[in-house]
From TrEMBL:
GO molecular function: ATP binding; protein serine/threonine kinase activity
Segments crossing the lipid bilayer: 184-208
UniProt record similarity statement: Belongs to the protein kinase superfamily.
Cellular component GO terms, alphabetical: plasma membrane
Protein's name according to its UniProt entry: Cysteine-rich receptor-like protein kinase 10
Source organism, top-level taxon: Eukaryota
SUPFAM superfamilies: Protein kinase-like (PK-like) (SSF56112)
Keyword flag Transferase: yes
Ranges where the Gnk2-homologous domain occurs: 1-46, 52-161
Pfam families hit by this protein: PK_Tyr_Ser-Thr (PF07714), Stress-antifung (PF01657)
Transit peptide in keyword set: no
Length: 412
């Protein structure tokens, strides 16, 4: 974090290097956040690339009771200013900024504090774009909140949560002919241990991954599934069965072309949505494999996130994040619910859908055409953010293709 000393940062990274191997075993990609630092590794290039997922949103348990609209306006104004300042720092400086402003409309607090930061490898344009994206999903109306993704993060509070002396003024450049040589031992003492620790961590994860790869021909019939890219996401059938209360009707959310959908609760109290492939449907193993592999690779805050899968007892099951506010059609076509969609919220939903479609069509590694986009396939999370679902019906386009043919009639 830009307001902290080198020693505090080094201590955080040293702890994170050990902690991430325990929290994320067998993973080829991982990221952990702490108050003082972020640590990330991947088997793919992550430098100078904006990575939007995973995104973590946290908020204070206390909401704002005085003039909430004015509060939200000031938060947005301060966050935008903080983003501009962080993104436009001089070359070589930390892409980090904070702001403090007095508040004159509340009797419970007197000031607001904001923070924004990008990873230093991003250019100014990408840093600004990343910060704008996380600001757009920042929970408002609470006494504090933050949004974190691998490339940037923002935060606001009603109390000073950063080191104010550490951001009072930017560091002055070294004088010509000064102590440049003396700084080299310090740099080496910091960089070498961190680099060695990260290399050891990557080696350990690679060895663990090699051991884990051999367990995925689960049918015992010799027909393996090419899903080693998501091998760490496998759930056993007993876990899914327990989470859904043995697929009870009370937990059934609906039925589509893929099969039946159930709500489940894992042992850690995480809510999930479980899609159980119907043997009588027109979809089969090929569609399951397609959806499992591709959706796991598609990471965007406006796409439903695949949490895992199950390939046991001749069952084909996908496990998704659960959307507590159901689907968009639940609000659009119910006169009693339409009032919950004011124009600001509708605009936010439309904007989110457009971002998700743009990602599928232009920005994802594989060009995906949804073909069945409708209100029932737009899920809404707890903050009414839209998430596009049901990619199993999508036709995959190669990167240099503009058209393709289908093998099956698909409803739209």
């Amino acid at each position: 974090r830009g307001d902290l000393s080198t020693s505090v940062c080094q201590a955080c990274v040293t702890f994170a290097t050990t902690d991430i191997s325990q929290r994320c075993p067998n993973q080829t990609t991982a990221v952990v956040w702490y108050d003082e630092c972020l640590l990330r590794y991947s088997n793919q290039n992550i430098f100078s690339v904006v990575t939007e997922e995973p995104e973590v949103r946290l908020r204070n348990t206390q909401n704002v009771t005085d003039n909430q609209d004015l509060f939200n306006q000031q938060v947005l104004s301060m966050m935008n200013g903080t983003a501009n300042q962080a993104a436009n720092t001089p070359e070589g400086a930390k892409k980090f900024a904070t702001r403090e402003e007095d508040v004159n409309f509340s009797s419970t607090f007197e000031a607001l504090y904001t923070l924004g930061q990008c990873t230093p490898d991003l250019i100014s344009m990408d840093c600004n774009r990343c910060l704008r994206m996380v600001i757009s999903t920042l929970p408002t109306g609470w006494q504090g909140a933050r949004v974190l993704n691998p490339s940037c993060n923002v935060r606001y509070e009603i109390y000073p949560f950063y080191n104010q002396t550490g951001v009072a003024s930017p560091p002055s450049p070294p004088a010509p002919g000064g102590n440049g040589r003396r700084s080299w031992p310090i740099i080496v003492a910091i960089v070498v241990p961190i680099t060695v620790s990260i290399l050891l961590l990557l080696l350990m994860c690679w060895l663990l991954k090699r051991r884990a790869k051999k367990k995925y021909d689960t049918n015992g019939n010799g027909h393996g599934y090419d899903i080693t890219t998501i091998d760490s996401l496998q759930y056993d059938y007993a876990t899914i069965e327990a989470a859904t209360d043995k697929f009870s009707d009370a937990n059934k959310l609906g039925k589509g072309g893929f099969g039946e959908v159930y709500k489940g609760i894992l042992s850690n109290q995480q809510e999930i949505a479980v899609k159980k492939l119907s043997r009588g449907s027109g979809q089969g193993d090929e569609e399951f494999k397609n959806e499992a592999v591709l959706v796991a690779k598609l990471q965007h805050r406006n796409l439903v996130r695949l949490l895992g899968f199950c390939l046991e007892r001749e069952e084909r099951i996908l496990v998704y994040e659960y959307a507590p506010n159901k689907s968009l059609d639940y609000f659009v076509f119910d006169p009693a619910k339409q009032g919950n969609l004011d124009w600001l919220r509708r605009y936010k939903i439309i904007e989110g859908i457009a971002r998700g479609i743009l990602y599928l069509h232009e920005d994802s590694r594989l060009r995906i055409i949804h073909r069945d986009l409708k209100a029932s396939n737009i899920l809404l999370d707890e903050d009414m953010n839209p998430k596009i679902s049901d990619f199993g019906m999508a036709r995959i386009f190669g990167v240099d293709q503009t058209q393709g043919t289908t093998r099956r009639v698909v409803g739209t």
